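Response regulator, Amycolatopsis plumensis. Tokens?
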Amino acid sequence: MISVLAVDAQPMQRFGFRMLLENTPDTRIVGEAETSAEAVRWTAELRPDVVLMGIRVPGADGIEATRRIVAAGGRSRILVLSTSEVDRYALAALRAGASGFLLKDTRPEELLAGIRAVAAGDAVIAPALARRLLDAFVRLDDDACEPVRKDPRLDSLTGREREILVAIGQGLTNGEIARRFTLSESTVKSHVGRVLAKIGARDRVQALILAYDLRLTRPV
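Tokens:
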């Protein structure tokens, strides 16, 4: 059973989340929060598996609340929901430590799939934003590519693990990585797990951000 905390300034929005989650066999809502301060406090007290985080909440916004929750070191995963497709919101949320970013008008089944994915340690990004988000990480001219930046976290990776990190940075799924390197998906999953552990990433989204920050890869 996946426990969820719903954070949103609008009571009707929270009511909608409650109705959806309480009528789904594998999810339950354990609390609601209206402000960023409440979100941080209730996450610490209730320790939900997933926090559904609205962007525009009273006090500090949902992105700052996400940053504070992640900094506290709890196990809760955060799925940010927004009414806007503005890329900077998605990028800021993911950099703050969110494990996913979806639009509020996503279909109920897609929201539930996102909750399950985030609870399982995976990451989810709204399809409409995925490509634009990749493009937002770097704005480099084709003939003026910056060199790879040095980082001690890369030193612990084997050659194959570094290739896997580059592939994650390109937004490839495990299946796509398996086909690229002629590996089984189970082998790729093991490689991905080791990469995340070595670089200290919570999930694939954080690994993707590192790959771009270090200039290991560019959008494909």
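The CA atoms of residues 116 and 185 lie 20 Å apart.
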